[in-house]
Amino acid sequence: MAQTQHPRIGDLLLARGLVTTEQLREATEQQKLTGRRLGDILVSTGKITPADLMDVLSERLAIPKITIKGLIADPEVVNIIPLPIAKKHRLIALFRINERLTVAMADPLDVVAIDEVRFKTGLMVNRVIATPEDIEAAIAQFYSVADNVDRVIGDISATASTATIAATGEDAPVVRLVDVLLTEAIKQKASDLHIEPDENILRVRFRVDGVLREEALPPAHMHAAVVARIKVMAGMDVSEKRLPQDGRFSMEAAGRSVDLRVSTLPIVHGEKVVIRILNRLGWDMNLDNIGMTSAQLTFIRGELRATRIRSSMHSRWSIRSR
Fold first, then answer.
1. Nearest-5° angle of CA 54, CA 60, CA 61?
2. Residue 313 burial class via C-beta count within 10 angstroms: exposed 0-12, middle 13-18, buried 19 and up
3. pTM of the model
4. I want to staple 101 with a disulfide (CB 3.0 to 4.6 A). Which of 115, 123, 196, 266 is the partner?
5. How far apart are alpha carbons 129 and 307 in whole angstroms?
6. What local confidence, expressed as pLDDT, does residue 291 receive?
7. Residues of the chain below pLDDT 70
């Protein structure tokens, strides 16, 4: 039985009108000389966009495409793949179901990357496609907090007393940990930072654009020391653990001066901490950075221009009719 011939990437790009015959010929010649993938050559020379390539690869390989922005990732799943591998191969783990790991890849044809992930995790890999920019942004977002937290907590002794840890100097591990959490929350323009103890872990979550997402899971034994450090910073009573408290302090991080409002509340496994982050100058909320697509921005700007024109014409008509 004859095997079904799948269309080549170049043919699909040509059929969609994304490249011309001449552009495809030039890219093919460059591919023969350099050994690079045809799609990468066309993207690097500006003939097509990464999104165009992702669409064609998805169709050619029958692999789903995905937009990572807006996803709420589980830090435990993300950290199944070590950060060096994620950066090296431009990929990130998104979901795990039993022994299958769903991995977003910029290059789903990278067999070496797939084999390395399988070997490192011991799991089967399901591929989905995302743009390189999307994956790099996700790595910066999802690994930054968890990776920094893991690096800091390695210096903290599980047997150290809360009072001793809270009273140490600025180089103490718990001080650095709290600084990491606050700085990352400010960098990501979070409105709130939540620190909540569970039975075996300490949940750290940021609220960004109204969505509360989990960022790190330090061990539960660090809870008392972290809360004590925050209470010291906010001018609260470290010894009082059975009543709600409120405090405040200010700091500068990521080029911003912010005010922080701190609330603590006793719950089953300890004290929950909520920190409201208030930028003294306010966030820069113009049309370009509120999450709209280019098509939506074009439409809205067109409507605004049309509204201004209609308003101007109405004003002129009103003056003339007097």
1. 90
2. exposed
3. 0.53
4. 123
5. 40
6. 64
7. 1-7, 144, 147, 151, 153-171, 254, 280-292, 313-322
CATH of 154-279 among 1.10.260.40, 3.30.450.90, 1.10.443.10, 3.40.50.150 = 3.30.450.90
- The strand pairing partners of 102, in sequence order, are 95, 126
Q: How far is CA 276 from CA 175, 215, 235, 247, in A?
A: 19, 16, 16, 11
- Cβ atoms < 10 Å from Cβ of 176: 18
For position 1, what pLDDT does the model report? 41
Which CATH superfamily groups domain 75-134? Type II secretion system, protein E, N-terminal domain (3.30.300.160)
CA 117, CA 127: separation in Å to the nearest integer? 11
Q: Positive or negative, the Cα torsion across 152, 153, 159, 160?
A: positive
Using DSSP, state whether 128 is helix, strand or coil.
Answer: strand
Q: Structural domain boundaries of the chain? A: 9-60, 75-134, 154-279
Asked if residue 102 lies in contact with residue 147, where contact means CB atoms within 8 angstroms, the answer is no
